[in-house]
Amino acid sequence: AYLREKKNKKINAAVFPVAGLGSRFLPATKATPKEMLPIVDKPLIQYGIEEAADAGITKMIFVTGRNKRAIEDHFDSAYELEAELASKDKRDLLRIARSVAPKGVEFVYVRQSSALGLGHAILCAKPALADEPFAVVLADDLIKGDTGAVQQLITASSNNEGPVIGLEAIEPHQSRAYGIVEIRERIGENVIASNMVEKPNPEDAPSNLGVVGRYLLPYEIFEVIENLPTGSGGEIQLTDALAVLARRDGVLGVSLQGQRFDCGSKLGYAKANIEYGLEHSEIGNNLRAYLAGLVG
Ligand code: G1P
């Protein structure tokens, strides 16, 4: 409620970096964007869009690249398909096809023509934003829970104008896969970070709290990114830009509720298909019986 009263702080836009090659999922991703791989029957990116729309976001900005046109087509209307389903009176399917793009939401596409890192991808979205705070959603991190992760960040941010990031406790040996925060202060389950390090070795990790792919960023992050040197992996890192703001003012880290699936990995992707499958109205019961038979 607080956020709605303070119009200047409402988050209206979300950035989805989707230019990555998805090479970890070859051959599936040879001609198909990895964001279009389904979890049961819905592409990964659609879960992210629905999560953002549920949090009141109305402008979805994709930072896209070559071979990603399927994403644009997915969120557009499909005239032939709809006409065909209508003529055969397949109303349920027609409804599904038509409800892919949430109502009242606009889609904007910008291109990242070279893979210079997540920070650079975010910078590519600058022309699509007004001077406003915005969310970033990495669709690879699929978070299943009662309240969407973007909404959790917005709720936690209430009187905080600075950056907000999603966090999860990770195993020490996983530190090389995450941005890791240095803790200045704990506030209940959440923290104020005083610094952040991208993909440190376990012995250099400042805590066991890893950044998961949900962020609320102030517009000034662009200026910070523009002045960054290249970081981990020779890329322009969003974590490094956030580290600048963390050292200056602190960054709010929100311990996210829900079960996270790393759908950038094959195992996480397989687990997500099972968990979402078990809850699926069409196949849930049969899948449960099948799995019970496997382990029984
Ligand atoms: C990115 C970020 C990293 C973050 C991670 C979450 O890394 O750079 O800080 O912890 O997403 O999934 P990537 O997984 O794209 O290598």
Describe the structure.
By secondary structure, the chain is α/β, with parallel strands linked by helices. The chain has helices spanning 2-5, 44-54, 69-74, 79-87, 91-98, 118-124, 149-156, 221-226, 238-248, 266-278, 284-295; strands at residues 13-17, 38-39, 42-43, 59-64, 106-111, 134-137, 141-144, 164-169, 179-187, 190-198, 209-217, 251-255, 259-262. It has a 9-stranded mixed sheet with strand order 5-4-1-6-11-8-12-10-9, with helices on both faces. Strands 2-3 form a two-stranded antiparallel sheet. Strands 7-13 form a two-stranded antiparallel sheet. The termini are far apart. 1-O-phosphono-alpha-D-glucopyranose binds next to strand 11 and helix 9.
Briefly say what this structure is.
With 296 residues, the protein is α/β, with parallel strands linked by helices. It has helices at residues 2-5, 44-54, 69-74, 79-87, 91-98, 118-124, 149-156, 221-226, 238-248, 266-278, 284-295, and strands spanning 13-17, 38-39, 42-43, 59-64, 106-111, 134-137, 141-144, 164-169, 179-187, 190-198, 209-217, 251-255, 259-262. The strands form three sheets. It has a nine-stranded mixed β-sheet with strand order 5-4-1-6-11-8-12-10-9, with helices on both faces.
